[in-house]
Design goal:
Blueprint lengths: L14 H14 L6 E2 H7 L8 H17 L10 E2 L13 H10 L12 H4 L19
This protein binds a DNA duplex (13 and 13 nucleotides) through helix 2, helix 3 and strand 2.
Length: 138
DNA sequence: CGCTTGACCGGAA
DNA sequence: ATTCCGGCCAAGC
């Protein structure tokens, strides 16, 4: 019976289609802004047959998995976790990601966290205004 | 073939 | 504030 109930974790029913949606959203993130894995997952509708509650629990990891092999064109550095921190990935790159974001104007505090209230972006802001949605510069 | 390990998240201790 | 745990599939070693 398809993906009803408790049957989905590592991948969506159609991983390629799902990843495509993830990349599409990530590509929209402006320089100097960030989104979280869970936020992106919440913007994508649960695939047919997937229980919404299960989706809510599992989808953030699908997004993470998708980001693991994202194309070079995708600004992967603008995706961080719900705590406002850069996710620790196997090997290295945390420093690289942080540096890339700092070059875009994102500020990290002593605890290596980003103020999401200030830098988190959502597609709703897109194109609404030509006003720079820039975080204020102190 | 079995064990380990995931670009996550929210709630509990 | 921080650490631990459940969720429960699939690819890699």
């Amino acid at each position: 019976m398809l993906y009803s109930g408790a049957m989905a974790y590592a991948s969506a029913p159609d991983p390629k289609a799902y990843e495509a949606q993830v990349y599409q959203i990530v590509r929209m993130i402006p320089s100097g802004r960030v989104m979280t894995y869970g936020q992106i997952a919440a913007l994508i509708a649960p695939p047919p047959g997937v229980d919404p509650i299960q989706y809510h629990k599992l989808a953030p990891r699908w997004v993470g998995t998708a980001m693991a092999h994202c194309p070079d064109e995708v600004p992967w550095q603008r995706v961080i976790n719900s705590q406002g921190k850069v996710s620790e990935r196997p090997g290295m790159g945390m420093m690289v990601q942080r540096k890339l974001l700092e070059q875009e104007g994102v500020v990290f505090d002593e605890r290596e966290r980003v103020d999401l209230k200030r830098y988190q972006w959502s597609p709703g802001e897109a194109g609404q205004t030509s006003e720079p949605a820039q975080p204020r510069l102190l």
